[in-house]
Amino acid sequence: MTPSIALAGLALAGKPPPPPDLDAVAAGLLGAALASDEAYRELAALCDGIGHRVTGSAALDRAIDWGLAEMTADGLSTRREPVTVPIWARNEARATLLGSPARDLPILALGRSGATPAGGIDAEVVVVGSFDEYKALPDAAVAGKIVVWDVPFTDYGATVAYRWAGAIEGAKRGAVASLVRSVTPESLSTPHTGVMGVEEGKAPLPAAALTVEDSMTLRRLAAAGPTRVHLEINAREMPDGQSANAIGERLGRELPEEIVVLGCHLDSWDVGQGAQDDGAGCVMVMEAAALLAALPVAPRRTVRVVLFTNEESGGAGGKAYQAAHAGERHVGVLEADTGAGAPLGFRVDVGADDRPDLEGLARLQRWLEPLGAGRLEPGGAGADVGPLVAAGSAGLGLINEMSGYWRIHHTHADTFDKVEPAALRFNTAAVALAAWWLAEGDPIGRLPGAVPGVEPP
Ligand SMILES: [Zn+2]
Predict the structure, then answer these.
(1) Who surrounds ion ligand 1 at CB < 5 A?
(2) C-alpha 337 – ligand 1 centre gap (Å)
(3) pTM attached to this predicted model
(4) How close is the Cα of 311 to the center of ligand 1, in Å?
(5) What is the whole-number distance in angstroms between the Cα of residue 274 and the centre of ligand 1?
(6) CATH number of the structural domain 21-86+239-448
(7) Tens place of pLDDT for every residue, the chain, 457 residues?
(8) 311 is catalytic
(9) Where are the beta strands (DSSP E) in 137-235?
(10) How far is it, in rounded angstroms, from Cα 261 to Cα 278?
(11) Burial class (CB within 10 angstroms; exposed 0-12, middle 13-18, buried 19+) of 132
């Protein structure tokens, strides 16, 4: 090597490379995301190769290993961070409408439901359409009965309150079980599970979701005369177990101590394949990170994928991650957890006390507009990144078109075939662009004065 070439090399090494052109890289990411079916291929592998992944299952452990292997293959450095999780076992649950003719009612026990005594219970139902209607009943109308919460879907947050609190309210007045109308605006006789609230130190009532159709039938029959149901639920709360958050990251080139989290939850309910909730969100963030990992120069900040565990039945993954990383600076945290419908934009979350500076995101909005995803509005970023936002991070929650979502949410029908490959490409592109902005652009600004937040599902 001649001295002049060596000196030229030294000079180059001492000079930082020019910063990447924000818009040019965004255009490249958009093109690459729209040209790739990698996220769709990964989702097929997760759904068909592993299946549903409830907390505590061997399938969830396999999914964590799978996620780590995929992210390693995509050039991210990976690790498994242990999380202690609550474990609940569904076991068998069945309900029969007694009388003439008797018939079986398809049900799904609610997560954390208690069990009926051996052999089950036979009891009359008392059907109510709201908490107000329930409160107006005398105690004698509830004691010894099965409370049926026949509450039509309005929005997820308002309606899910009955799934959450129905069993607690029933127990306070001596009901023997709680049945809730499935939380969905449309139904083809499909029960929808989901977690329910349990009061500290109290044994939970047996509780399950009915189909919308059967809930409405019970209301009609009970209005006409005493109506009895046989209910047998063998669900059980187990000792806590071990799970993990799966992490994959690329260190930032200038500000490696500033972290951008791209999050989803890898656990699902133990029905269907957990395809839209939330396998789709996981492959979106994994593939977006893979595109950032493939850039010749690393983004300024560290990009870190977190496949959270235990979102559905306790949120232990999100809480454990925040506790373990409380000393780090999370400048932006993104979550994808509202299915795989077309992307519409992002909820921007700076916590309860401030409102986000949406004008500061105008450039990101311009990148998103060709995807039809330019909607930016204040709102909750997501359940898993919630603890990080509460601790001061700024969040983005992917907004999806949801007309096809609620009817399959938490059911046997949340399967891979419902996911449209084109919509998944658009979602992956939207997440990649948002991740690029968080990792390279200005941090999300906050303005004083709260906005009434929209809670994410
Ligand atoms: Zn979810």
Answers:
(1) 277-278, 337
(2) 5
(3) 0.94
(4) 7
(5) 9
(6) 3.40.630.10
(7) 334 444 444 445 567 678 899 999 999 999 999 999 999 999 999 999 999 999 999 999 999 999 999 999 999 999 999 999 999 999 999 999 998 899 999 999 999 999 999 999 999 999 999 999 999 999 999 999 999 999 999 999 999 999 999 999 999 999 999 999 999 999 999 999 999 999 999 999 999 999 999 999 999 999 999 999 999 999 999 999 999 999 999 999 999 999 999 999 999 999 999 999 999 999 999 999 999 999 999 999 999 999 999 999 999 999 999 999 999 999 999 999 999 999 999 999 999 889 999 999 999 999 999 999 999 999 999 999 999 999 999 999 999 999 999 999 999 999 999 999 999 999 999 999 999 999 999 999 999 887 765 444 4
(8) yes
(9) 146-149, 177-181, 207-210, 228-233
(10) 16
(11) exposed
**What's the CA-to-centroid distance between 121 and ligand 1, angstroms?**
33
Give the whole-angstrom CA distance, residue 405 versus residue 418: 9
The first and second tokens of residue 29, run together, are: 């990411």
The two tokens of residue 407 are: 């009817």
CA of 62 to the centre of ligand 1 (A): 19
Tell me, in angstroms, the distance from the centre of ligand 1 to residue 280's CA.
Answer: 10
Of 249, 311, 335, 440, which is the active-site residue?
Answer: 311
Q: In CATH terms, are 21-86+239-448 and 91-234 the same topology? A: no
Q: Could you tell me the two tokens for 446?
A: 């906050």
Domain ranges within the chain, ordered by starting residue: 21-86+239-448, 91-234
- CATH second-level architecture of 91-234? 3-Layer(bba) Sandwich (3.50)
